[in-house]
Amino acid sequence: MADSSLFDAVRASILAQRNTPPIERVDRGQLLPASFAQQRLWLMEQLDKANAQHNLCVAFQITGNLNTAALQDSLNAMVQRHESLCTSFKWDADQLWQVVSPPSTSAIVMPQDNADTKADIDCIAKHEASQTFDIEHPPLLRCRLTGIDEPHHVLLLTFHHLAFDGWSFEIFMRELGVLYAAFSAGLPSPLSELSVQYADFAVWQRKWLQGQVLQDLQAHWLEKMTNPPAPLMISSIPKNLSARGRGNCLAFRFGAELNAECKRIAQRESLTDFMFLLTAFNILLFRLSGEGDIIGHLEIPPK
Questions:
Q1: pLDDT for the residue 44
Q2: Do 269 and 135 reside in the same domain of the chain?
């Protein structure tokens, strides 16, 4: 059965959010608190600073004549445009704070490499992905340009999750393309200045998610996590204690008939596709382990 206390707490937080004023730009001269998502991620970072598991990496293949100077300028313009990329974090007075640095101090350096084979590019990409960030010193973005010959290049971008998430990729690449086209033609940036930044959202969030609303949500999860179950052990899956966050991704497709049946059941039970698939995955873990009380960790976008 569903836990009504959780629904009540979530409903109260939603109502509180609806009654808040719109997000507005705040004075950058004041202390800027981190959002709850940033604080949670920062705490996880402190537990294992040598682990690069919070890096988000992407490689883009570029074919054709490349204006490297325009690309470099475009990357720096993106850092100047999005404060989160030139933001550092510090803990003071029992609170995590954001420190937005001047863009001039967070310029992007884009090393360039020549690779003999695709395997060499893969090796460079893996090396970039494994390098940690110093989150007290922005920018929280690294760029590297490599390629086998002149018309074929690969742009490697590595972000820290504190400044970037999966939803940001499309926005970043779209704006980077607009800037590159303009700078290659000797034109100024056609992008208008952003009215609010993520720091403004964090201040707004801290204002409405407090008092009884926050206390109810905290009380629910503190009660639930007081006596958590033991780590899940599945005999058929060996536990690698040295994995240090390294995992893999298994992609597969549902057949049309199975996909339609899953959607039908989800709609009947008033579930989203995500809720239905997560339930199915938990059932699988139950069948493999025999444990009825399972705690799962899900990555959620901090943006």
A1: 87
A2: no
